[in-house]
Amino acid sequence: MLRLPRFRYHEPTTVADATRLFAEVAPSAAYVAGGTDLYPNMKRRQQTPETVIALHRIPELREITGSPETGLTIGACVTLTEIATHAAIRSRYPAVAHAAHVVSTPILRNMGTIGGNLLLDTRCNYYDQNYEWRKAINFCMKRDGEICWVAPSSPRCWAVQSSDGVPVAVALGADVTLTSARGPRRIAAAALYRNDGIQYLEKAPDELLVAYHLPPVSNGSWRASYCKLRRRDAFDFPVLGVAARVDFARDGSVSGARIVLGAVASYPQEIPAAGEAIIGTRLDESAIGAAADAAYRPAKPMDNTDFTLAWRKEMVRVHVQRALQDIRAQSV
């Protein structure tokens, strides 16, 4: 049985108290919400904070405020189940609700939070093992070692960004608010991620993600979709995720589009050429096929997760087509 290491545990009741506590004990601290990512990592000795600061007793992190017309703000500790079942999110932001619904199992969705999902640690077959297994292969550069076993000659880690919520947040053009003892800042979700398996977040260690801001929805001017590929639909992480947002002009033609791939790189990979392929069209099959081809070419999945990388790359075409066809069907 894998056991947690010893640590000190705090339950602040305000964001100010949480950030103050972190500043006092940094860098040997970690925030925890649902714990579905941090605690398994601690059991595997991938993360070993001496102090854990729990966030579940902070009321403002559990709220959903605003409206679809002005934009929704979701507190970082709102659970994935709450998002998947929220009436306004289901009806006006179906891609967000669907991405939350396909994360793991019902029990873990009841525990896991949107903040944790947006900050999910990158994953790799060589990294997501217990300490003894990793020690037997001489560790990897993501933790305790000096080599990337996926690409041994590489100077960087290729662990994969495998969150369902992240590509949707980037495709939608959502924002997040981060705060620390130095004060808050609001940034685009796309600016939060780096193409590096180790330093995968543009976030200071002491910063706390407090809110997820969804853009306004007005008169069906844009629609979005999310498609996920995994071996077992019951609970697996994605080996490919495709999020798409399409903006429509008044005449029904596409005025803008954003297509983002998840689980093929260390960051959510936007493919501008795929979006450009459908601008000016009415999402006919020819345009959708062109977007799928454009997304296929730069997608370079690594051999560090389930299925063969060649097949996962081929599935990029299929899932881009499905995501765009779903958006087209939403207007019927």
Helix content: 25-40%
CATH class of the domain at 59-120 and 160-213 equals: Alpha Beta
Number of helices: 12
Please, what is the average pLDDT? 96
Q: What features would you describe in this structure?
A:
Helices cover 30% and strands 20% of the residues. Helix 11 runs antiparallel to helix 12. With 332 residues, it is an alpha+beta fold. The chain starts with 7 loop residues before the first strand and ends with a helix.
Outline the fold blueprint.
Blueprint: E1 8-10, H1 15-25, E2 29-32, H2 38-43, E3 51-54, E4 64-67, E5 71-75, H3 80-85, H4 87-92, H5 94-101, H6 106-111, H7 114-118, H8 131-136, H9 165-172, E6 175-180, E7 183-188, E8 208-213, E9 222-229, E10 240-248, E11 254-262, E12 269-270, H10 272-276, H11 285-296, H12 309-330
Parallel strand pairs: 1-3, 2-3
Antiparallel strand pairs: 4-5, 5-8, 6-7, 6-8, 9-10, 10-11, 11-12
What keyword list fits this structure?
20% strand; 12 strands; Uridine Diphospho-n-acetylenolpyruvylglucosamine Reductase, domain 3; 4-stranded antiparallel beta sheet; globular; alpha+beta; Enolase-like, domain 1; 332 residues
